[in-house]
Write a structure and sequence with these properties.
Blueprint lengths: L4 H14 L3 E5 L5 H7 L8 E6 L3 H8 L3 H7 L4 H13 L5 E7 L14 E8 L5 E6 L5 H22 L1
Parallel strand pairs: 1-2, 1-3
Antiparallel strand pairs: 3-4, 4-5
Helix pairs in contact: 1-6
Protein name: CinA family protein
InterPro entries: CinA-like_C (IPR036653), CinA_C (IPR008136)
Organism: Aquibium pacificus
């Protein structure tokens, strides 16, 4: 089971209570959020699909992220996270979608976008997508990815409770 089992169960229950499905769009976590959710028996009644869009091409082809967005802002940006979340929502049967894009390390960081920087996008039917940024300590790739999963589940749960 996932170290995030309790949070994942809460997200699934919140979706079930509201009668909606969810989708994920993941870059730096490579499907770990979807895995945390689908580790739980019965999750198929709530989880519609997960998009693993590690490359820029995948973000464009699978989620409809604009080439101009990636050129102007990069893959790790507020704008890309928003477009990823909106794209996952539009290309699924979900009522809510979570997107993550970040620098998990150990390489790839820059002064502007250091290792540990992650953007989160949340989109819900009938609402404007929202994005939040976190800067996790550079305590290794696994730490950053696990913190990203935990934070994504927390943000999705908060969004669901606000509905």
């Amino acid at each position: 089971m996932s170290p995030h089992e309790d949070l994942a169960r809460q997200v699934l229950a919140a979706c079930q209570t509201r009668g909606i499905m969810l989708a994920t769009a993941e870059s730096c976590t490579g499907g770990m959020i979807a895995a945390a959710l689908t580790d739980i028996p019965g999750s198929s009644s709530v989880v519609d699909r997960g998009f693993v869009t590690y490359s820029n091409e995948a973000k464009q082809e699978m989620l409809g992220v604009a080439h101009s967005t990636l050129e102007a802002h990069g893959a790790v940006s507020r704008e890309t996270a928003l477009e990823m979340a909106a794209g996952a929502l539009a290309r699924s049967r979900a009522g809510v979608a979570m997107a993550v894009t970040g620098v998990a390390g150990p390489g790839g960081g820059t002064a502007e976008k250091p290792v540990g920087l992650v953007w989160f996008g949340v989109a819900a039917q009938g609402q404007e997508p929202e994005a939040e940024c976190r800067q996790f300590d550079d305590l290794g790739r696994d730490y950053i990815r696990q913190e990203t999963v935990r934070t994504a589940l927390e943000l999705m749960l908060a969004r669901l409770k606000a509905r």
